[in-house]
Design brief:
By secondary structure, the chain is mainly alpha-helical. It is built from twelve helices and three strands. Strands 1-3-2 form a three-stranded antiparallel beta sheet.
Length: 295
């Protein structure tokens, strides 16, 4: 096994146990260890009973400390519909209910505003915005939707979007014969193969996520590169349509390897075809990724 594979598997095991891993761990942020849940389930009762329905839905937050946890809690409540559109958010009330400072509330609302979830206006205050205003490509919003009432729609939409993005990225990447990228992609296939043999699903998923992210980044299209975070988010969301990326098998590894071989040969058509085979949804699931519509 290569040094890279050994380092990655060690890092994965450290992350799974909640311990800080050696050097490389920060390069694989796909599975996060739980953080201490300082913010309990909100108890916003009285005139606002719907604010008390949300529980501790997530084990962690992309942020750090109270600020990250408050963003997570409020974001989930908005996306799940517990805080409906045009709902006023009073900073003082939020601070009291979650037992956090005014600064934490203010910074958290700014983050949510940047995601399009809330808007702050003079003499109006902060209010929840309608779904049409949300940044639906934001990784946090993707995650919150995927584990909320809209989970089925979110996972279907992600699968359809990947079906559109990744075959094109594979075709374009075949025109960029960078040896360092070829080697990195080969390393990811090797890591996935070894992880599958060891029954190490965490390492497999991390290597798979890096494989797909790297492929998009090397396609030479800045707009596609901007969408690489969507693919990473899709790979983190479990329970959706089962594709070759969701189920570690010899067939899945074979499709990944064929993509690498096609890139090395500069064969865009073969790379695109192998990616489409990888993304085909297994027949035993009800929802499938539809073929492009004919016009």
């Amino acid at each position: 096994m290569s040094t890279l594979a050994h380092t990655m598997m060690t890092a994965a095991r450290s992350a799974d146990s909640g311990l800080a891993g050696p050097g490389e761990l920060d390069r694989y942020p796909y599975a996060e260890a739980p953080v201490t849940e300082r913010l309990g389930a909100p108890s916003w009762d009285g005139s606002d009973p719907e604010l008390g329905r949300v529980g501790r839905r997530a084990a962690g937050s992309r942020g750090r400390g109270l600020h990250g946890q408050l963003v997570q809690q409020l974001g989930q409540m908005i996306v799940s519909g517990d805080l409906g559109a045009d709902r006023p958010l009073v900073p003082e009330e939020i601070g009291q209910r979650f037992e956090v400072s005014r600064t934490v509330v203010r910074e958290s609302l700014r983050v949510l505003e940047a995601k399009g979830l809330v808007s702050a206006r003079p003499n109006v205050g902060t209010r929840v915005r309608p779904v049409s205003d949300w940044n639906l490509l934001d990784p946090d919003i993707i995650e919150w939707r995927a584990f909320g009432p809209q989970r089925d729609n979110q996972r279907r939409e992600l699968s359809e979007l990947r079906w559109t993005i990744e075959p094109l990225a594979a075709r374009l990447a075949a025109g960029h014969g960078r040896e360092d990228v070829q080697q990195r992609l080969s390393d990811m296939v090797e890591i996935m193969s070894h992880a599958m043999g060891q029954g190490d699903a965490l390492t497999f998923s991390r290597a798979d996520a890096e494989f797909h992210s790297l492929l998009i980044q090397v396609a030479g299209n800045r707009m596609l590169e901007h969408l690489s975070g969507i693919v990473s988010s899709a790979l983190q969301v479990s329970g959706g349509p089962v594709t070759g990326c969701d189920r570690p098998t010899d067939a899945s590894l074979g499709h990944h390897a064929r993509i690498v071989d096609a890139l090395a040969a500069g064969d865009g058509g073969a790379a695109e075809a192998a990616m489409r085979q990888l993304l085909i949804v297994h027949p035993e699931v009800e929802r499938v990724v539809p073929a492009p519509r004919e016009h």
